Amino acid sequence: MSDITEPQNPKSFDAEKEAIGTLLDRPASIRAGKIEDLQDDDQFEVFKKGEGNVDFRTVGWIKAAVIFLKIIFATGVLAIPSAYASLGALPGALNVLGWCALNTYTGIILGDFRNRHAGCHSVADMAGVIGGPILREGTGVLFALAYIICAASGIIGSSAALNALSEHAICTMWFAFIITIVVAITASARKFETIGWFTWAGFFSVFIAVFIVVIGVTVVDRPAAAPKTGDFDLGYHIIGHPTFAGGITAALNIFSSSAGTSAMLPVISEMRNPKDYKKSLYLCMGFVTAAYLAFSLVVYAYCGQWIASPSLGSAGPLIKKIAYGIGLIGLIVTPCLYTHVAAKYCFVRILRNSQHLQRSTFVHFATWLGCTLVLSALALILAAAIPIFDYIIALAGSVCFAPLALMLPAALWMYDFAGYRTGTILQKGAFYAHALMFVLGIFMTVGGTYGTVASIVDAYAQGLSIGPRYLTVVQSLDDGSTALIAQVEADTAHSKWYAKVKQRMKIEYHPGESNTNDMTALQKALIPVQSAINDYFERPTQISVFTSLQELRMSGREALIKLNMLAPLKVEYMDFLSRPETALYYAYRLDTCETVGLPQDCDPDLIHAGAVWFDFDGTSLRIWLIEVDEGVMDTYGGSGDVNIHESASPKTSNVIHTQLMNLLDQYTAMEDFPGRHSHNYKPHRSDITIAMISGDPTPDSVDAVRQAISSVFPDKELQFQDSIAPSEIMAVGAARRARHITDNPDDFKVYPQYILMPPDYQYPPHDEL
């Protein structure tokens, strides 16, 4: 059985003697997860004991376990239910169990490799053993980058806590600056043994805060982020049906929540007895797995898809303040610990094999303080400069943690046990299982990056403001006539918030046969808008209704008031756009010309559009006839409504043909029209650039439309193009326009007689939100 208990790569030892230093032959085994008793050889460790040396190896296994817990366990436990919303409760729970178990095993591999090979202080040193200097430096960059980003995330979380507790007494960036100073000071403690005392307080404060929120969500009537009144869909599913991008992103979030095992290596190097690391690892990961599973299932069962962002607000404003007050210490310790981990790697990397590493010299202190101060500053810059920071965190999980927590441990194991590839059946099975784990790491890296990038692109496509100044959420009626816009003052856009908003915006709202009945549609459309802004209830918020139907002014205001929306309330009637033109006009504001099949360089003010609307058994369909002119002209528009209460047929094609011809006769001229700036101007029929349909037509109705347009425009090559639905165009473009209004208030003419607000409310200018 000796071939099972001995590493099978003899070439590694000679290379390590030359690259790292003295290495005593020390037989080891990872069979059954055990390492043979190792001699406490001072030459084997990076930090050595001796007279005049600073003794870094002072951490006991219990304190190491608490440090491990603070590295892994954080308020992110309440973000896992958001992943359940995509995967479902059962697949989500299996993901938690599977990833926690796998991350525990890879932690064992890392610790075993570290204790088997001399001088391995971090994963970068381990990568150097198997891949030389290039792999060592590349892994070191990934390691440092990952934990700088994590530290920046901790600064954001701590700033949010101070904002909630102080009710925004000062600017968020000032809070972030203050937190960074505290982080830089506390992270400058040279030893993990000293940091360990902070982690005790930090871990218990965060655990108690999370526990309070978990209990809180079970006693409130409805989740804090859910609609305040009326029925709502909890969004609880045993098994979900996500898209690939949504599923891989959810799995990546769960994986990343316990993938910080690479940060444990520097702690092991400062343990009094490094071979005790497994006790610490098992205690940490056992507790984390149980807490993640129990807490996330309870929160998902009671909140469903309505997990607030930040997560500690899921049980309401009062419990949020209580949780933040209790968890503030832990929230501050988190970036402190991550900064210390990254700084310790840089410190050892710079001073390794020099007398300054463990001597209290000027170079020693200057290097150490320089590392902590520079990395703290970088974390602050990242926190302030990246507006879509949650997406960057997700990218860090795929680009950094998947290679460090999956690919590297698999490669380390296969390096030490290369002989297993040609050994017994059991040994071959073990070898190829680790090769499969390496492939899994590649998949999580590539797939996770794709999923995150797809989410970023999707967030842009939703038209939600991604700038650092405001968050904007838009909803519209199905006919494109009315947009509901909520602008929330914020410092950072949150990906989970956007994901929830997108999910709520999928419902279509039909205005009904009579405009006087549109109030019901407005109320329904306002529910997801209100739910979205509930996540930021403490922020100044502007709620607006933009409509091209004058009849909706009063009903829009009444709908806002009945839903108890936050002041100020505003309803604006846009008399300068007719209904069929509105969607196209807004589409150009977002530069989606190619999407809707029009020239990309076209000015939206130079659009002429006429549309005829059809209804195929309740399926709304619009046909747009569009002319784009190089000169400045007034827009024109018109529409005719045709209800076809039967399936599409050749008869339907004839009806569409007739209606299109009527539209052309009414809104185009057969000869050049004098006076292009005249209000009665009509473009020449031959100048029609394109015929475009929008909506969600059936295949049969599409064929009928194709036949009709071909008969009306037999000589046009580009006779027909599909487009996205007008309601989607409206939402996308309206968000862009709302941001333009905010940034350029002088460019937007507001007619006072069209503004409705509470009598006792003084409406602030846009630039004073």
What does this structure look like?
This protein has helices at 2-5, 11-19, 61-72, 80-87, 89-116, 123-166, 172-187, 192-219, 244-256, 264-268, 277-303, 317-351, 362-385, 389-416, 425-461, 495-504, 518-534, 552-562, 579-589, 650-667, 699-712, 726-743, and strands at 470-476, 482-489, 541-547, 569-573, 607-616, 619-628, 639-644, 690-695. It has a four-stranded mixed beta sheet with strand order 1-2-3-4, with helices on both faces. It has a four-stranded mixed beta sheet with strand order 7-5-6-8, with helices on both faces. Strand 1 and strand 2 form a beta hairpin. The protein folds into three domains: 2-461, Amino acid/polyamine transporter I, CATH 1.20.1740; 470-579 and 730-768, no CATH class; 597-723, no CATH class. The protein is of the alpha/beta class and 769 residues long. The N terminus and C terminus are likely disordered. Helix 14 packs antiparallel against helix 15 (425-461). 54% of the residues lie in helices and 8% in strands. The protein contains 22 helices and eight strands. The N and C termini lie far apart (74 Å). It is globular. The chain crosses the membrane at residues 67-87, 141-162, 169-189, 195-220, 281-302, 322-341, 362-386, 392-418, 430-450. One of its GO terms (molecular function) is L-amino acid transmembrane transporter activity. InterPro entries: AA_transpt_TM (IPR013057). Pfam families: Aa_trans. Its main location: membrane.
